[in-house]
Design brief:
Blueprint (H helix, E strand, L loop, with lengths): L9 H11 L5 E5 L5 H4 L6 E9 L2 H17 L18 H11 L11 H9 L4 H11 L1 H13 L12 E9 L2 E5 L7 E5 L5 H15 L7 E7 L3
Helix pairs in contact: 1-7
Length: 228
């Protein structure tokens, strides 16, 4: 089973959110640089950060080793973190979007509908159960995602091989979390705060870029207060 891949494009993500019933008080914006001066141009507050990066054999090996190290050393995960597994090919953009929204329900208002009811019904589920719920009952959500994917600037097909992957970063209970639906668990990236979320996530994004010095196909977006 595969969905159409979403572009890393704020316009696409914002239309997706609005179609799902998310209030327009919040919107995605491009993050054009990861240094302090450039980050100052991003509207505040920032609720989440999404990174699109090249997903190749080198990364897969790194991720495998990192997960094994975390399993051995252990980590502290807040019970308030909403994490879901990704079981559908090309759904990483949708999963990252859900991670960004679901971990900020105390700040984001969602109108009644399929998305809100799906989120509410999944709050007490395990990550696997949430992923299965999206796979089995996400028909309406997948149709929206596929429709928006077709509106993008790149021709897409559910059978095309995608070499890039989305992850989300959120701050919960004083820690920065990296949420990747293809991993077994959230990753605690260290202390953070709502005020420092963007800067702390930018540091992790830089680490991704430094591991791939010959790659240029990275994009970063922030879910931030809409500029009126």
């Amino acid at each position: 089973m595969a969905w159409l891949p979403l572009e890393s494009n704020p316009d696409v993500m914002n239309k997706f959110m609005q179609t799902l019933g998310v209030e327009d008080k919040w919107s995605f914006v491009d993050v054009y640089g990861l240094d302090g001066e450039t980050l100052q141009w991003v509207p505040r507050p920032v609720l989440a950060v999404m990174l699109l990066f090249p997903c190749n054999d080198k990364f897969e090996e790194f991720a495998k080793e990192e997960c094994e190290q975390i399993k051995q050393k252990g980590q502290t995960i807040s019970p308030t973190v909403y994490f879901m597994k990704q079981f559908v090919s090309n759904a990483c953009g949708t999963v990252a979007l859900i991670h960004s929204i679901a971990n900020n329900l105390d700040k984001i208002n969602i109108s009644d509908g399929l998305f809100k009811s799906t989120l509410e019904s999944s709050i007490n589920m395990t990550p696997d159960e949430r992923g299965t719920l999206l796979t089995n009952t996400g028909g309406g959500i997948s149709e929206i995602a596929d429709s928006l994917a077709k509106e993008g600037q790149t021709e897409v097909s559910p059978n095309m091989r995608v070499y890039h992957h989305f992850v989300a970063f959120v701050c919960k209970d004083g820690s920065l979390y990296e949420l990747d639906g293809r991993r077994d668990f959230p990753i605690n990236r260290g202390p953070s705060s709502p005020e420092k979320l963007l800067e702390d996530a930018a540091k992790i994004c830089k680490e991704y870029i430094e591991r791939e010095p010959n790659e240029v196909s990275f994009t970063v977006m922030a879910l931030a207060a809409s500029e009126k």
